[in-house]
Design a protein that fits this description.
69% helix, 283 residues, 3 domains, Helix Hairpins, Nucleoside triphosphate pyrophosphohydrolase, ATP diphosphatase activity, EC 3.6.1.8, NTP_PyrPHydrolase_MazG
Length: 283
Amino acid sequence: MAKDKPTHPAPDHPALARNAADRTGIRRLLAIMAALRDPQSGCPWDIEQDFASIAPYTIEEAHEVADAIVREAWDELSGELGDLLLQVVFHAQMAEEAGMFDFADVVASISDKMIDRHPHIFGDESRDKSAAQQIRDWEAIKARERAAKAEKGVLDGVALGLPALTRAVKLQNRAARVGFDWPGPAEVLDKIVEETRELAEARESADHAHLTEEFGDLMFVMANLARHLEIDPEEALRLANAKFTRRFRSIEAALAAQGRRPEDSDLAEMDALWNEAKAAERA
């Protein structure tokens, strides 16, 4: 869209926002955000925000959608998806104010992309292909898109804002496509032993920056092992977090039955209760 501000009268955003008859329409949500961002009558907090300040909320809302799915909290999912949609609308509103693009451009962009990336559905290509072939075709299309953006490096275009473990896997996948990869899990396990030894050596020094670097190296190789084992490291860690939470709550419940709290216990007792919870899960 052009960067010049439109000359036609602005819509009555508050009136649209209060239109309960249009409660499911996207126009109402767009009007709500426009009203919140109105320089004269909007919400002071919303007016002060910019792309950088809102980005962490966008990431947080995406994680909350994933959390609802993992917990199978289907009654919460629509609300969480709404929170995530609000983030898209927020960014689009700020972009429109800056004369960059608007929500319609966002919708048009993703619609065009989906059509372009599915020529076997919307074009002349045969639909008779395996899922694996579709993945290869998808990657070829994305490679052409990156070339059109002048992204010439193998690692260009891997988003900096991704969770670190996810980005590590994506970087490694890109490198693997051009042959820069370990032959299999055995070699990665050997590398983990090496990196663990280097981390132990770094621990003996007083150089915290070096210790952080070695810890990062170990995490990066762990992500590589997950990739070779076809495990999503983010999902694996989420499951480990959930297991820890579940078992620690069992410790709290056992102590509460005695009228006590964790701070009234000691490590030996809590470790024994942990093992009881672990055994109960496996029974």
